[in-house]
Amino acid sequence: MKAKKNEKIQDLIIDKYYEELENEALEKSDCNIVLLEKKLKLLKNKFDLMNNSPLVKIDIQKVIEDAIEAKAKKQEKVNLLLFILLSFLVFSIYILLININGFGFFVRLQILFGTLIPWILIPVSLIFSKGKV
């Protein structure tokens, strides 16, 4: 039903455009072609304004690069903050251990860490990097 009415409206518009239909026949039709014609003229004017306006050129690649760069900067700030907090925590633990057990314990702890940590961190880093070197 809707398709037939749309086809009828299209036929009326085509007839009006090619001046095959007189105004009296338009008034007798059950479609409000005059109102539709006004709406189409307004729409045409809006499209003409859009066609006359300069095109806006957007460089999608630059936008994506800027977003990636902003994300990287944010990640760098987070990593720096985490490093500072972790460093402060380790330094505080060292000071606490020195106060509790003395400086000799701290020296032995440093020697132990200096020899064992590389043997632990290198295999762990290889496991987490999934063999990528």
Properties at a glance:
133 residues, 5 helices, mainly alpha, rod-shaped
Q: Which SSEs are present, and which pair or pack?
A:
Elements: H1 2-17, H2 23-28, H3 33-52, H4 60-101, H5 103-128
Helix pairs in contact: 4-5
Transmembrane segments: 80-100, 106-128
Coiled coil: 26-53
Keywords: Coiled coil, Membrane, Transmembrane, Transmembrane helix
Tell me what you see in this structure:
With 133 residues, the chain is mainly α. The chain has helices at residues 2-17, 23-28, 33-52, 60-101, 103-128. The two termini are 69 Å apart. The relative contact order is 0.04.
Strand-pairing-aware structural class: mainly alpha
In terms of per-residue confidence, which ranges show pLDDT below 50 for 5 or more consecutive residues?
none
How much of the sequence is in beta strands?
Answer: under 5%
Fraction of helical residues: over 70%
| Secondary-structure element order, N to C | HHHHH
Inertia-based shape? rod-shaped
Please give the radius of gyration in angstroms. 39 Å
Major β-sheet annotation: none
Quantity of strands, as a count:
0
Our count of helices gives: 5
Overall pLDDT = 79
Distance between the termini: 69 Å
